[in-house]
Amino acid sequence: MKRYAHQIGAVFYMIWGVLHIRSALGVYAASTAMPPGMEDVGGWLFQGAWNMLWMAVASIVVAAVYNWKNRPVGYWVNLVLVSLASMGFIFAVLAPGYVPLEKGLIGPVVWLLAVAFSTIGYRGERV
């Protein structure tokens, strides 16, 4: 398994990306459904959806191009990008209870699996 750990990690990063593309579409839908007088909130939601979408796309591309081949740049880029995005979600949304744990833990669990497997693969090849 150690031989393919980096590729398993890459798949988890891709899954994380797909989950967050779906989430970005949901946030975008919420941004367009704001009632009159809430345009400012809708704008912030739209920007959040935009940022989430491109973080997700970036994580998928980096996973497919770099993590799959166990390249150091891919390991570090996705480690930092996805970790910062996931920790932001955990501290700003999940911990205060804005999203129920049963729905909100999916992304962080996938993130932790991606980090664990990609680290095993990355370190295994360099030890």
Give a description of the structure.
The chain is mainly α. It has helices at about 5-30, 40-65, 70-95, 100-105, 105-125. Helix 1 runs antiparallel to helix 2, helix 2 runs antiparallel to helix 3 and helix 3 (about 70-95) runs antiparallel to helix 5 (about 105-125).
Give the proportion of residues in helices. Answer: over 70%
Number of helices: 5
Low-confidence stretches: none
Radius of gyration: 16 Å
Report the average pLDDT across residues: 94
Globular, elongated, flat, extended or rod-shaped: what is the shape?
elongated
- The H-and-E topology, N to C, reads as HHHHH
Beta-strand content = under 5%
Distance between the termini: 16 Å
Structural class: mainly alpha
Report the sheet with the most strands, covering strand number, pairing sense and barrel closure.
Answer: none
Secondary structure: number of strands: 0
Name a few traits of the molecule:
single chain; 127 residues; mainly alpha; 5 helices
Describe the SSE topology.
Elements: H1 5-32, H2 39-65, H3 72-94, H4 101-104, H5 106-126
Helix pairs in contact: 1-2, 1-5, 2-3, 3-5
